[in-house]
Amino acid sequence: MPFDNLSFKLEIYEGPLDLLLALISKNKLNIYDIPISLILEQYMDYLAQMREMNMDIAGEFIDMASRLMLIKSKMLLPKIDLDDKGSDPRAPLVDALLEYRKAKENAARLKERFVCYSGRFIKETDDVGIDRSFVAEHDVELLIMAFDRIDIRRRENRLASDNQAKVTLDAILHKKITPVSERLFFVLRYLSRRGEAEFEELLLTSNTRSDVIASFAAILQLIRSGRISIEREDEDGRIYIKINKKVYSA
Known about the structure:
It is a single chain. By secondary structure, the protein is mainly alpha-helical. It folds into two domains: 16-117, no CATH class; 140-249, Arc Repressor Mutant, subunit A, CATH 1.10.10. The protein is built from ten helices and three strands, in the order αααααααβααββα. Strands 1-3-2 form a three-stranded antiparallel sheet. α5 runs antiparallel to α9 (209-225) and α7 crosses α9. The radius of gyration is 45 Å and the shape is rod-shaped. The chain starts with 15 loop residues before the first helix and ends with a helix.
């Protein structure tokens, strides 16, 4: 006969849940309201085709067939309470189908990413250690320039607020000379409270020119001993002084 050599291809599914999802999609059914009789009939037809083609039927397919038959038999029993929504025998099957469908969708997305990124290579990050031996050099010229600016500001402020044209020799002789040691203590105490301060801010806290000079000398001495350091200089040329806490914690 001319049709003896015809062969038929049977769709292969990964498991019984995969087969059930295909049947639900083919019949355009609501997964939350599965007509078990229809699905069971088509499911058994698929198993029959597998037998006709001498295909080995996995035990999980047979197990699912028995579960579908059990669900169908339970649905044929009279319902005692129609309002009891939790008594639907299809509920465990629906939950399993939903979980399987979610896993299948995620697997498809992962496959797309694998196809896109599997041929790429990522360079290993270089392990760059921290060089703690470097110590920034302090430019004393910056402090001298800042001191000059502060001195000019103090003179301008004094001329604006003080109408005296001259300072008598007697006033000069009786002026208090501020010791550097006193301003050393003041600068350290000021920075320990704030952590850091602007250089001009430190000097402008002085009341007299003697205080300013003593504060400037104290800052230079503290920088030289490593107790404080010049932290940074901003775009406006302002200098910041910071206390070195490591010196005191050591």
